[in-house]
Specification:
heterodimer, A: mainly alpha, 13 helices, globular, B: 322 residues, alpha+beta, 6-stranded mixed sheet, 5-stranded antiparallel sheet, 18 strands
């Protein structure tokens, strides 16, 4: 009994210690360092024109990339979980490509394809501009929703959908009234992960952005820029802003938690 | 009235249905009875439009429904595992088909109330399926299927996932419901007792084919072949014929056509007495007698008795089996 208890407590200490060392301490330290110079200094640092522009660019990119990847992710998950066709394994493998390929390589490939003398030329500027940064963000955050939703779809099964069709619902009605409500937690979790990745992306965006101050600098790029320019306090302030956005996303998801009676 | 003609369905090399033809009379409660893999569920799902046949036609109420999607066949379908809409209340589950049809809210509320009364779930409107027992969920699923006033009601092993006592209760309940509602109903089951108790017609299936169709007593008393006989109840083999163990006649004295046997075991089961006999010519036979029949005989292990089948109820073993 007591050996059991000891090992249980030991495991908890190990898990919490690991979490603390890798996550809580560094994040806590950032907030501590941020507010060390005083609130006024922090406020000044995050309200410079460069910081405000970086904040809104980060939000703008996420606001385009997240809905795109949510729709794509749900469709892909439906195809993976419900479809029966040849080459499904290939799609299954390709979905994970953004996880496997380094973001820097993704950025370079976008430069090669859409850049000056690239394979594809569009009437508007792609690289060193917002469209390229959106493209890079969409690519690196592509798999999250599909990977969260597909297992939920498999677990829920398709009997409820069949029941809906026998009751007269067409595919569209079945999707909105049966399928989507039953996968909503998978979708919500996928959206949170996608948002976090979109906001935090550095490598791919860094390559295609060109880092034009006030135009193509996101918050993550701003953190690095300030750090390189020995503005350590400014870098901390921008980091804290990033962390706050992430916390707000998590909070939004927690507030949407399922009502108890629906747990089944 | 459902008419199925020449339906064939294969999954790869496996032939699930092989040239099947069935008529389900209007207003009847027909059971598709067979072992697992016999094709009974596939046939039901083809009638529903949840699967499409490789060949053949399905007519519902005289209309060719073969190409119609499930949503336009006017059917009600009940699944073995309920297929309850987990994120909806009981009220919204039952109302689903009507709200798809955009009926006025007043009409929907009235219909839902009426159906919940029929299935005995009044007062459960605002519960979620997770708060119901298995039997209650299945009754909710039945109310949901009946809400749209289907032309035919299709039940796929509806009591298969329930406890034995709940199952027995729901069977009797379904029979009463059918007498009230009178909608043409097809029930899939692998339980011959369930089919005998609930259905007024039984379609016995095996290996993707139909072995026999008829009222319960007919398929039990006059089975078309050894498979049907064996699937509908216990079978004893005497000589080269098959017979129901309760049809065998046992006497202490030799009689015309009787065979000599020795009693091996006697089991008293209340009103029924089971004798295990060893035939003098070789082989074992199980006999079911009533307590009344054994009173004169008083069989004990080791006794010599004479056993004979009544001529009428013997199925020659040569009859084509499957």
């Amino acid at each position: 009994m007591s050996a059991n208890r000891t090992s249980r407590i030991g495991l908890r200490v190990l898990a919490l210690g690991y979490l603390a060392a890798l996550l809580l301490v560094p994040v806590g330290l950032i907030f501590y360092r941020t507010f060390e110079p005083g609130l006024g200094a922090v406020w000044d640092s995050v309200t410079t024109p460069a910081a405000i522009s970086a904040f809104w660019l980060t939000i703008e990119i996420a606001a385009i990339a997240v809905p795109l990847n949510t729709v794509f992710g749900i469709v892909t998950a439906l195809v993976l979980a419900r479809g029966q066709f040849r080459g499904k394994w290939l799609l299954d493998a390709v979905i994970d490509l953004p996880f496997a390929v380094s973001p820097v390589v993704v950025g370079l490939s976008i430069l090669l394809v859409y850049g000056a003398g690239g394979w594809i030329s569009l009437p508007f500027q792609v690289v060193f501009s917002v469209p390229g940064m959106v493209l890079a963000t969409v690519f690196v955050s592509l798999p999250f929703v599909a990977r969260e939703v597909a297992p939920v779809l498999r677990e829920v099964g398709d009997e409820q959908e069949q029941a809906a069709s026998t009751l007269g619902a067409n595919r569209w009605q079945t999707f909105w009234r049966i399928t989507l409500p039953s996968i909503r937690w998978g979708v919500a979790y996928g959206v949170v992960l996608t948002t976090a990745r979109a906001i935090g992306e550095f490598g791919a965006v860094s390559v295609v952005s060109g880092r034009i101050a006030g135009q193509t600098t996101t918050l993550t790029l701003l953190v690095e820029q300030r750090f390189q320019n020995f503005d350590v306090a400014g870098a901390y302030a921008a980091s804290a802003l990033l962390a706050l956005i992430a916390l707000a996303t998590l909070l939004a998801m927690t507030l949407l938690k399922p009502r108890k009676e629906e747990d089944a | 009235m459902i008419t199925v003609r020449g339906v064939r369905k294969t999954y790869g090399d496996f032939v699930a249905l092989d040239d099947v033809a069935v008529d389900v009379p209007a207003g009847s409660l027909t059971a598709l009875l067979g072992p697992s893999g016999s094709g009974k569920s596939t046939l039901l799902r083809i009638i529903a439009g949840l699967e499409s046949p490789d060949a053949g036609t399905v007519e519902i109420e005289g209309e060719d429904a073969t190409q119609l999607p499930a949503q336009r066949r006017g059917i009600g379908f009940v699944f073995q595992h309920y297929a309850a809409f987990k994120h909806m209340t009981v009220r919204d589950n039952v109302a689903f088909g009507l709200s798809i049809r955009k009926r006025p809210r007043k009409e929907i509320d009235a219909r839902v109330g009426e159906l919940l009364h029929v299935v005995g779930l009044e007062g459960y409107q605002r519960r979620y399926p997770a708060q119901l027992s298995g039997g209650q969920r299945q009754r909710m699923a039945l109310a949901r299927a009946l809400a749209v006033e289907p032309r035919v009601l299709l039940l796929d092993e509806p009591f298969g996932a329930l406890d034995a006592n709940v199952r027995a209760e729901l069977r009797a309940w379904l029979r009463r419901l059918h007498e009230q509602v009178h909608v043409t109903t097809v029930l899939v089951t692998h339980d011959q007792e369930e089919a005998m108790e609930v259905a007024d017609r039984i379609v016995v299936m095996n290996d993707g084919r139909i072995e026999q169709t008829g009222p319960p007593r007919e398929v039990y008393d006059a089975p078309a072949n050894a498979f049907v006989m064996g699937f509908l109840g216990p079978v004893a083999r005497v000589g080269d014929g098959l017979v129901r163990p309760h049809d065998l006649l046992v006497s202490a004295e030799p009689a015309r056509g009787a065979r000599e046997a020795q009693v091996v075991r006697v089991v008293h089961l209340g009103f029924e007495v089971r004798l295990e006999l060893e035939l003098a010519e070789g082989g074992h036979v199980l006999v079911q007698l009533t307590r009344h029949e054994t009173e004169a005989l008083e069989p004990e292990p080791g006794d010599i008795v004479w056993v004979r089948p009544p001529l009428r109820s013997v199925l020659p073993e040569a009859a084509p089996a499957a």
